[in-house]
Specification:
The complex is a heterodimer of chains A (129) and B (718).
Chain A (H helix, E strand, L loop, with lengths): L3 E2 L6 E8 L4 E2 L3 E10 L9 E4 L2 E3 L1 E4 L2 H6 L4 E10 L7 E2 L2 E7 L6 E7 L1 H11 L3
Parallel strand pairs in A: 3-11
Antiparallel strand pairs in A: 1-2, 2-4, 4-8, 5-6, 5-10, 7-8, 9-10, 10-11
Chain B lengths: L7 E7 L4 H12 L1 H7 L1 E7 L5 H15 L4 E5 L6 H14 L3 E5 L3 E3 L3 H9 L5 E7 L19 H12 L5 E4 L6 E4 L1 H7 L12 H10 L4 E12 L3 H5 L4 H15 L2 H11 L1 H8 L11 E6 L9 H16 L4 E6 L2 H6 L9 E3 L7 E7 L5 H10 E8 L3 H4 L8 H11 L2 E4 L2 H10 L7 E4 L23 E4 L9 H11 L5 E5 L8 E5 L5 H10 E6 L8 H8 L4 E4 L2 H9 L6 E4 L2 H9 L18 H18 L2 H17 L1 H5 L22 H22 L2 H5 L1 H13 L3
Parallel strand pairs in B: 1-2, 1-4, 2-3, 6-9, 10-11, 10-13, 11-12, 13-14, 14-15, 15-16, 17-18, 17-20, 18-19, 20-21, 21-22
Antiparallel strand pairs in B: 4-8, 5-9, 6-8, 7-9
Classes of the chains: A mainly beta (129), B alpha/beta (718).
C-alpha cells in the first residue's frame, strides 16, 4: 500500500492493512486490522476513518508482531469494527470506500471489496420479520 | 407425423451361459401377447455349438415359446462371435423387410417394453435406434446411481415404475446400448450391418449408430420401457479379456468418429443427465416418505425474527410432516449449535456443502446471492421458497445485488413460492413476472398467542414500567426517529428501544438488534407497559403478535400487513393503529393504553402447527403435478446459464484489489488460471529469448563494446 504523504514538512507514514490482506470483506460484520509505521516522525494519535460524513469506530492497538520485524520504527496498530448494514448507502458495486483522515496528511482512500454472500446476509437482515 | 412401424425380429445371440435361457424365455412368455401385437419374431442364435447344455435348453425354450409367439432358432455350426451372428440373422430380416431388436441373452424383458420401444421409434422419422431403460446398461441405467445397478429384477422394475413416470417418453442420446437396441430396417438397408472389424464385441453397435448419425439419424431412449440386464455375462464366459477388447475397439471407433467422446461427455455434462441423476431423490422409502431439506444455510450465529420463525416452522414440521417427509436441516455446525437445533427431536442435519439430493428443498427467506440459489437448485429436485418481503429491492440504498435476476429466477423456475402474508404476495406480483402454472400460497405465520408465550402466566395482562419500541437499525423500521420523537414529547417516560446502537437520549435504553436472546426478548416484553411498532414496511410483523401474546397493548403504524393481521388476531382490540408519528404522540398524550379484555372468543387462529401442516399438505401436493420436463430441466438449464455468468452475478472476487484492472478493463481475478498461465507463458517466452540472445554470435561479438559502454556510464555518474 502506498505511503501516506505528509502536507507541509516532509515525511512519510507507512500504512498497511494486514487483515484482510486482500481487502476483501467476507462477513457482514467484523474487524479490519492494520498499522502505521514511521521512522522520521510521530504517528498522530488523532486520526479517524469515515464514509461520507459517518465515522467508523476504531481503536488503536499495540502491534508487537510488527514492532519485532521493523526495529527503529514507531508502530501504531488499529482495529476498525464494522457492520456493513450501517454503511449500505455508501456501498456501491460491492465496493466500500473508506477515507482515512490524519491531521497534516493528505486523506487516504481505502477500498474494500465485499463478498456477495456478506452483502446478501446484510440485506437479508433488512427483511427480518 | 408418426411413422407406421414394421414387423420386428428380436435377435438374441447366445454364447455359453445356458443358465440365462430360462429367465429370458420366461420373460418372453409373459409378453407373448405383446410380441404378437407388435409383429415380432424371436430369433435365438446359438453361437456355442460345442455347448450341449445350451443347445438342449435353447431348443426346449424356443419350442415352448413358438407355441404362443413366432419364434425360431439359428444354430451356428461354429462359434463366429457376436457381430457375425447378428449380421447373418439381420440380413435375413432385411430381406424380409423387417426392423430388428438386438437383445442380449442376459436380459429379462418386462411387460410393455417391446411395444414402447417400437412406438418411440415411430415418433420421429430421424430416430434410427432405440434402447429401453435398464438397471445396468451405461446410459440406459435408471436410476443412474451405482447402488441401483445390481438389484434383483423385480426390485429394479419396481423402482423403475416408481420413477419412470416422471421422465418424458423418450429423449435423444449420443448412442444406444447394444444390450437391447432397436434398429430400423432403413438404417440396416442403407448403412449396412455391424462392422466385423470389432471381432467378438464392444463398440460395433456404436459404429453403426455413428455411421448413420453422420446423415442425421439419432439414437433415443424409450424412457417408459424397461429391460433388465445382468451385464457382462457373455464376456464373463469369453476367453477374451474385456479391457483388452474394449481398448482395441475404442481405438478403431475414435479414429473413425472423433465426435464420439465429446458427444458422450456433452451428454454426461448436460442438463438432462444431471436432472435424471437427481430423480432418485423422488423414490419414497419403504414407508412412503420422502426426504425434505430446510435450507438454513443463511442462518447465522445471532438472533432475529426470521431465524426464530424458521425454527418454529421447522419444529412444527417435525411434528406434522412425519408421515410424509424425513425432515433435514441444511445448516452450519455453528448455527446448529447456536440455535439449539440439536435439541429438536427427529431432525436430521446436513451441512451446506452436502452432495445429497432431496425430493424438496425449502428455503425460508428469499435468496440474496447466487450461491444460495445454486445450492437450492443442486440439493432439491423441487425448489420451494418462502419470500418474506421486497424491501431490499424497494429501498434504493439496499438494492445492491442482482436481486432482479436472483428473485426473477425464483419466480420463473422454482416449483412453488410461499409468502408470509397476502400483502407480500401482492408486492411480489407487482414486481415480478411469474411462470405460468407457478404454485403459490400465502402461508401466514402463527397468529395464536399461545405459540408466543413461554408460560401461561405470560398471557396475563400486567403493569409494566416502560414503553418498548421494537424494530432494528434499518431505516424502514423507523425506531430511531420514533424514539427521538417519544423522548422529546415524553421526557419523563422510560423508553426501551430495540434497534439503535447508541444511547443519545437521556430517558432511553437502547439494545442493538441481533444480540438479544429469546429469553432476554421475553423479559423485555414482560416489563413493558405498551409496545410500539413503528415500522413502515413489514412482510408480517411477528413482534405485534408476540406483544399481544404477552398481554401488552400495541401501537403499530397502520401499514397494509398490520391491517391484514388485525383481521385475524384474537385480541385485536389491543392493537391500536396510527397513521403517523404525530398521531402516535397524540394518542400517547391521552395516556398509555391499557389492556382491554377481548370482547368475544374468536375462532381458533392459525398456529405454527396448523399453518405448517397446511404447508406440508401443499408441498406434498406439488408432487402430483410436478413435471421433469416442464420444471426441472428448464431450471437446471437456466442455472447453467447463470453459472456461466457467475462472475458478473457475484461481483468482484478476492484478488480483485481495488483499482486493479485487467487488460480488458475488467477486474483481475485470483482464480483466473487462464490469465495466470498466459502470463507464465509470456514470461517463459521472454526468458527463452534472452537465453537465445545471450548465446547468439552477435551478442558475444558486441560484449567488449557493452563493457566499455557501462564503464563510460559509471564514470559519467549515470
Amino acid at each position: 500500500m502506498p505511503d501516506l504523504v505528509k502536507i507541509g514538512p516532509a515525511g512519510t507514514l507507512r500504512l498497511e492493512i494486514d487483515d484482510p490482506q486482500d481487502q476483501y470483506l467476507r462477513t457482514a460484520t467484523g474487524e479490519i486490522r492494520g498499522w502505521f509505521a514511521a521512522s522520521d516522525l510521530d504517528i498522530p494519535e488523532d486520526y479517524w476513518f469515515e464514509v461520507g460524513s459517518v465515522r467508523i469506530p476504531h481503536r488503536t492497538v499495540r502491534r508487537a508482531d510488527v514492532e519485532d520485524v521493523m526495529p527503529g520504527y514507531a508502530i501504531a496498530g488499529f482495529v476498525i469494527t464494522y457492520d456493513l448494514a450501517e454503511y449500505l448507502p455508501y456501498i456501491d458495486g460491492q465496493q466500500w470506500k473508506v477515507q482515512l483522515i490524519l491531521p497534516d496528511f493528505r486523506p487516504k482512500l481505502l477500498k474494500f471489496t465485499i463478498a456477495e454472500s456478506a452483502l446478501g446476509n446484510c440485506l437479508a437482515a433488512a427483511s427480518d420479520i | 407425423m408418426v411413422e407406421c412401424a414394421l414387423p420386428v425380429d428380436i435377435l438374441i445371440p447366445f454364447y455359453r451361459q445356458a443358465s440365462l435361457v430360462k429367465n429370458l424365455f420366461e420373460s418372453l412368455h409373459r409378453v407373448a401377447g405383446e410380441l404378437a401385437e407388435v409383429g415380432c419374431e424371436v430369433v435365438a442364435i446359438n453361437d456355442s455349438p460345442d455347448d450341449p447344455e445350451l443347445k438342449d435348453r435353447l431348443r426346449e425354450a424356443v419350442d415352448s415359446l413358438a407355441k404362443v409367439a413366432p419364434c425360431r432358432l439359428i444354430e451356428n455350426t461354429q462359434n463366429v462371435g457376436f457381430g457375425k451372428s447378428i449380421n447373418r440373422a439381420a440380413q435375413e430380416s432385411v430381406s424380409k423387410r423387417r426392423d430388428v431388436i438386438l437383445l442380449n441373452s442376459d436380459t429379462i424383458v418386462f411387460p410393455g417394453a417391446i411395444r414402447e420401444i417400437v412406438r418411440v421409434g415411430a415418433l420421429d422419422p430421424m430416430i434410427g435406434f432405440v434402447s429401453p431403460r435398464s438397471n445396468n446398461a451405461t446410459i440406459c441405467s435408471f436410476p443412474l446411481q451405482e447402488e441401483f445397478q445390481h438389484l434383483a429384477p423385480e426390485q429394479s422394475y419396481e423402482i423403475f415404475r416408481a420413477l419412470s413416470g416422471y421422465l418424458p417418453e423418450y429423449h435423444y442420446v449420443p448412442v444406444g446400448v447394444g444390450f437391447c437396441l432397436y434398429i430400423k430396417l432403413q438404417i440396416l438397408d442403407e448403412f449396412g450391418y455391424l462392422d466385423e472389424i470389432y471381432g467378438r464385441g464392444y463398440n460395433e453397435e456404436n459404429d453403426l449408430i455413428l455411421r448413420a448419425n453422420r446423415c442425421g439419424y439419432q439414437a433415443a431412449l424409450a424412457n417408459h420401457a424397461f429391460v433388465y440386464h445382468v451385464g457382462e455375462a457373455s464376456f464373463k464366459a469369453s476367453a477374451s479379456p474385456k479391457e483388452e477388447l474394449e481398448k482395441q475397439n475404442s481405438k478403431i471407433l475414435l479414429e473413425r468418429y472423433p465426435e464420439y467422446p465429446r458427444s458422450v461427455a456433452k451428454y454426461f455434462n448436460g442438463v438432462h443427465y444431471r436432472a435424471e441423476k437427481m430423480l432418485s431423490a423422488l423414490l419414497p422409502d419403504s414407508s412412503g416418505k420422502l426426504d425434505l431439506v430446510f435450507d438454513f444455510s443463511s442462518m447465522g450465529t445471532y438472533h432475529n425474527g426470521t431465524f426464530a420463525a424458521a425454527k418454529c416452522i421447522l419444529e412444527a414440521a417435525l411434528e406434522t410432516w412425519q408421515d410424509r417427509f424425513h425432515v433435514y436441516a441444511m445448516v452450519s455446525e455453528e448455527a446448529q449449535r447456536f440455535h439449539n437445533l440439536d435439541r429438536l427431536k427427529g431432525l436430521l442435519v446436513v451441512r451446506p456443502d452436502t452432495q445429497r439430493t432431496f425430493a424438496i428443498a425449502f428455503r425460508f427467506g428469499q435468496p440474496f446471492d447466487f450461491e444460495r440459489l445454486d445450492r437450492m437448485s443442486r440439493v432439491g429436485v423441487l425448489n420451494v421458497y418462502m419470500m418474506l418481503d421486497t424491501i431490499a429491492m424497494d429501498c434504493l440504498y439496499l438494492h445492491q445485488l442482482n436481486l432482479e435476476t436472483l428473485w426473477g429466477t425464483v419466480f420463473n423456475y422454482a416449483d412453488a413460492v410461499l409468502y408470509n402474508s397476502n400483502f407480500v404476495e401482492e408486492q411480489f406480483h407487482r414486481r415480478f413476472r411469474r411462470r405460468p402454472g407457478l404454485k403459490e400460497m400465502a402461508a401466514l405465520h402463527s397468529l395464536a398467542v399461545e405459540d408466543y408465550r413461554q408460560t401461561s402466566k405470560d398471557g396475563e395482562a400486567g403493569a409494566g414500567s416502560y414503553l418498548l419500541v421494537v424494530g432494528n437499525a434499518f431505516a424502514h423500521k423507523y425506531v430511531k426517529a420514533t424514539v427521538d420523537a417519544l423522548s422529546k414529547a415524553f421526557p419523563r417516560e422510560k423508553i426501551v428501544a430495540l434497534g439503535p446502537k447508541d444511547e443519545q437520549w437521556h430517558n432511553v435504553t437502547a439494545y442493538p438488534s441481533g444480540n438479544l436472546s429469546d429469553d432476554q426478548m421475553r423479559n423485555l416484553l414482560r416489563g413493558a407497559k405498551a409496545v410500539i411498532f413503528p415500522s413502515h414496511y413489514e412482510g408480517f410483523g411477528i413482534p405485534v403478535v408476540e406483544s399481544l401474546a404477552y398481554g401488552k397493548p400495541v401501537l403499530a403504524r397502520s401499514i397494509p400487513v398490520i391491517r391484514e393481521l388485525r383481521e385475524h388476531l384474537p385480541s385485536r382490540e389491543n392493537l391500536i393503529l396510527y397513521a403517523s408519528t404525530r398521531e402516535l404522540l397524540e394518542r400517547l398524550s391521552q395516556g398509555c393504553p391499557t389492556w382491554v379484555s377481548p370482547a368475544a372468543s374468536s375462532p381458533q387462529p392459525l398456529s405454527w402447527k396448523s399453518g405448517t401442516a397446511e404447508i406440508g399438505e401443499f408441498l406434498w401436493r406439488l408432487l402430483e403435478t410436478w413435471d421433469f420436463r416442464e420444471h426441472l430441466l428448464p431450471r437446471l438449464g437456466y442455472m447453467r446459464i447463470l453459472q456461466d455468468h457467475r462472475e458478473e452475478l457475484e461481483g468482484p472476487a478476492p484478488s480483485a484489489m481495488p483499482g486493479q484492472k485487467g487488460e480488458d478493463g475488467k477486474n483481475l481475478r485470483k482464480t483466473d488460471s487462464y490469465a495466470v498461465s498466459e502470463l507464465k507463458a509470456q514470461l517463459l517466452d521472454r526468458e527463452a529469448r534472452i537465453v537465445e540472445l545471450e548465446n547468439s554470435l552477435s551478442w558475444k561479438i558486441t560484449a567488449p563494446l557493452r563493457t566499455m559502454g557501462s564503464i563510460y556510464l559509471r564514470l559519467m555518474g549515470k
